Amino acid sequence: MKNTLYILIVVAMTLSACSKPESLPAPGGEVIVNYSVAVPQTRAVPDDAVNYVWYALYDHGTGTLLKEYEPVIVIGGRAECPVSMMRKHSYKVVFVAQHFELNGGQKVPSYSVDAQAAVISMPRLAVANSDNYDVFTCVDEVLDYDGAEPGPVELNRITAQVKFKCIPASWDSFMPTASSLALEGVPQSYNLLTKEFSATAVKVEYAKASLDNGQPCLIGTAYCFARENISKAELTLYNNSRHIVLEADSVPVEKNNRTNVLFTEDLNNL
Predict the structure, then answer these.
(1) Contacting residues for 252 by C-beta, under 8 A, at least 6 apart
(2) 108: helix, coil or strand?
């Protein structure tokens, strides 16, 4: 069932975080550069959604992977990320801050990272109404490294957030308890070195999850990669006894921005 909607606003959510690296000498002509990466807070402490920083070192000219590092936990809003560099060499240091689940001692990221290709992939299966799919990246370019302290780097959000809302009468009459989502036309991947989304698009399904009764009229949220628009959004809204399906076409999205979609019908009558 397709319903009339209005795209209300796209509000920029500019967030930045700087790292202040320190350089220390190491044997063999190498220098250990200690990046202290500040990570934006995405959820109330201590259960912040972005909880680890993955990072890797690449050759500046060829983009060849030189070293992939173990993800570092975020403590007090920062991750300490040491990198070994050779003097007179040029590098790109890539950082990805995102949510990791701990599963049997293994760190499982929300977005898989192909270190060799320097590509991060959009998950095809996710969970609705979760902050765990926010993600930030940055690239620090180091030219002819001379052992000095590099300048600060800034993490940038590469996802868009889409929020689906209903009118108060619908919230009060339908009394929704959970929702699930499907978004079509989402970029399949993001190249960490070129900072470009892929032309290939995929459908992402967000599993059913509870709604926050403390946020009336908010009936669904999702994070996703964003190029220009989502070709189709489908939201399934549940109360304890039944469900309804709401659809919207060509929803505008942009990284580091929030799009609010308002369904204006009385949902209890659908």
Answers:
(1) 7, 10, 228, 229, 259
(2) strand
